[in-house]
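Appendix B. Raw example, untouched.
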Amino acid sequence: MNTVPSLPGTPLAARAVRYVRACETEPVANHSFRSYLFAVLLAGHEGLRPAADFDPDLLFFACVLHDLGTSPAAGGTQRFEVDGADLAAGFLAGSGVGARGVDQVWEAIALHASPGIAERRGALAYLTRRGIGIDFGPGLGVHQRRPGAGDPRPLPPAADGHRADRRDRPPCRARPAERAPLQHRRRAGARARPGRAPDDPGAGGADLAVGRVKWRAASGRTDEPQQRPVQQVITRQDIVPALISEWSAIDALLTSLAPPQWAMPTSLPGWSVHDTVAHLIGTESALAGQAPPPSGADIRDLPHVRNDIGAANEQWVQGLRGESDDAMLGRFRAVTATRRAALEAMSAAEFDAPSWTPAGPGTYGRFMRIRVFDCWMHEQDVRDAVGLPGHGDGPCAAVALSEVADALGYIVGKRAAAPPGSTVTIELTGPEHVTWHVLVDGRARLVDALPGPPTAAVRLTSHLFSRLAGGRVPAADHLAEITLDGDQDLGRRVALALPFTI
């Protein structure tokens, strides 16, 4: 009887396991881990040799990452196998795996639900599909002999049926390296021989666009797509200084406020300036490991508390309501100093590690970019409330608006229902000047250029854009401040669809 294998112990394998656990439910994650164990047992049973007939590391990644397409991290507008393959490819490419290995894993995952095809694409695709399939059947004893592998009962509907309502969810608002798309294009008429990677010399050649970075295969092709996806790179050297600078800007603003201004209402339901500062203190305090002070308020009954994140925010708002303005400023300075020290001491690997974020599974870096967005938006909330406009452009505004930019495909394609083949340009006319282009060709996405004039163009100030995107003001009340060119109906729908944050 074969010995039951174990999961690899390499650092990248451990990262993959953490990523899967962050993205998937426990039953689905355990199914993915067991699929790998079955694939290894099957390889031994059929005489397939690791390293000689297949790469054991790639088999692990193909099996363990194969169901990412059923998770909230997936966009939901493609087949779930392709969504999962794209997510896995982004994770591996961002972790330093070579283009050939990334492509082999992409193919194995994309074909894992395609009987009769995966079996003809080499040992890796074959073992991946069979290992996954065995876990749905009687198995080879792993369920009984490896208790930690999880419950052998059928997967819940979210995984077993790959539910159609997954497509009704908004996609995560950003695409970090772990979630970047991979597109596999083969030369017309080219055909790879079974068992060879598509980018293997002599296999026909392929281009790989992994993590929005062009990869050229060994065949030497150099043709580029007309409209390339816009690269949204999240780096520690950009995000951490922007966040520290934003905290300094908020500190200066709060220092300038008179006591009556702290009590002024903001555009956020139920929150004054004091409450908005309490929220900022609370989020950074929670990230520093501190618990909220007791409040005694029945938070769930408040009309503006709509979800768990809102309830967590409100714990701090209610708990700090009795603090003086000076005490609040002192708290803000203390916690941001603590957080600054932690961020500056953090390694690049820790910054890029998988993490929960308010937008779904991502990286810690993505979480910190959301913190820049959140802090800058709340600075603008305070400025609007007290009548002190400012800090609407510069590095902090640019980072904050880049967080919104990653949602433009969803806003244009899903919320505004832009038709296939249409294009939309959104131009911010100042104080921060930015122009974005969205192309709708199956999935609406941000691109660096359009093939011609846009179907619709929407022009507005960056301040109004941020207020609309953050749901601070009703879009219908500000249409007169927005310039629309081209298809007026589509442009109006895009303008009305801009509010998207939770």
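End of appendix B.
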